[in-house]
Amino acid sequence: MIVVYWWQRVKKLKTISPHWDNVEAPCEFASHCGGCKTQNLLYEAQVRAKEQQVHELIVHVGKFSDKDPEFDGIMKPIVPCDIQFHYRTRKDNHVKSPEMEFSFGTRKWVPEEFLHQECDETNEYALGLHAPGFFDKVLNINKCLLQSNSANKVLAAIQDIWRDPELGLSPYDVHSHHGFLKHLMLRSGRNVETGQPELMVNFVTSSYKPELLKPLVEKVATFPDVVSIMNNVNTSVGNTSVGEEEYTLFGKSTIVESLRGLKFQISANSFFQTNTHQAEILYKLIEDCSCLKGDGSEIVLDLFCGTGTIGLTLAKRAKHVYGFEIVDQAISDARHNANFNGISNATFVQGDLNKIGDNFGEYFPKPDLVITGYPLTRFNLPICCYFSRGVAFLFLVVLR
Ligand SMILES: C[S@@+](CC[C@H](N)C(=O)[O-])C[C@H]1O[C@@H](n2cnc3c(N)ncnc32)[C@H](O)[C@@H]1O
């Protein structure tokens, strides 16, 4: 049988009458930005659609029957978040990622209605989010409703000065591979003693030239919430914000966040749940669903563990937690976080889970519970083979 896949791009011409779930998007950039694509959809409708998507995956791809009386135990109902804006602790990554980043660009995305306006060459430079479907065009923005007010103030301050020709700063050109500034990452945490917000500002550049960043650093360091200014140097031509080298330009190299009563230290490149408020609820749900006896007899395997947050929140009820993760920095944060919280029954191993061998199961005792923060489609054959041997009592897939 030959299967032909066919697709076409469609464009809305006009609205005859709005859908009953249509709402006015609160963000002025919503219709042109590649960040939030559903802001004009009622939140309850967004939640319904997301739940439906997961349901379809579980039934059609996972082949679980929703007629099964135990289906409720296979898929838990979606839990809506009671805050929809200013919740996001990190803005990064690029256009195809579920997360977003601020990118510096040589080509400003100009929505059709503003095309007639003239602009000079430096006005073509942009800092913001990628236009939908374009890796080389950036919509210039000075605020984003998803991030905190203090992060927005920092973004606006950088926007105010970075194009000043006297500073000699140039955005990186993804075609010619010339230019200096690649990405801006803003990451929020909080001082766990005072509860005050803390902000990490990370400039991703194509080379290490701290003297060029000095005016931006001096400006940004005046904001009381900014406790860390980092510089990740990424010399590759790819569009990633992870640097091969990392330098601390001001303050600390990590920020702190608390979750389920534990404190977590987070570096610029380590994954940490981007909505701390909802992560509290998610992690409570994981604890409840984990069915751990709490007598310290069970082994937990935390795959794709990031900074170790899920495993560490379960450690007090487990015999031992084993976490696996590809990012070096995340593993050193996870180890540090275990010590930071006085947890000694957790082991974190750096490695690529797509490259595990048949002997994977020899590195730890047979687990009673496996947690994976990634959907099954990310698994490769060896890891599926490992699981197909029925190694675990309970398997929890955590979808954000
Ligand atoms: C969505 S995050 C989940 C992190 C953690 N479970 C949590 O909830 O905080 C996925 C993690 O998988 C890691 N990862 C991605 N590909 C990987 C691979 N091939 N091997 C190991 N870890 C990987 C990423 O670096 C990231 O930290």
UniProtKB/TrEMBL annotation:
InterPro entries: Methyltranfer_dom, SAM-dependent_MTases_sf, U5_MeTrfase_fam
Transmembrane region(s): none
Tree of life domain: Eukaryota
Residues engaged in binding S-adenosyl-L-methionine: 273, 304, 325
Domain Methyltransferase residues, every copy: 298-376
Signal as UniProt keyword: no
Alphabetized UniProt keyword annotations: Methyltransferase, S-adenosyl-L-methionine, Transferase
Gene3D superfamilies: 2.40.50.1070, Vaccinia Virus protein VP39 (3.40.50.150)
Statement: the UniProt record of this protein carries the keyword S-adenosyl-L-methionine: yes
Recorded family membership: Belongs to the class I-like SAM-binding methyltransferase superfamily. RNA M5U methyltransferase family.
Descriptive protein name: Methyltransferase domain-containing protein
Species for this entry: Rehmannia glutinosa
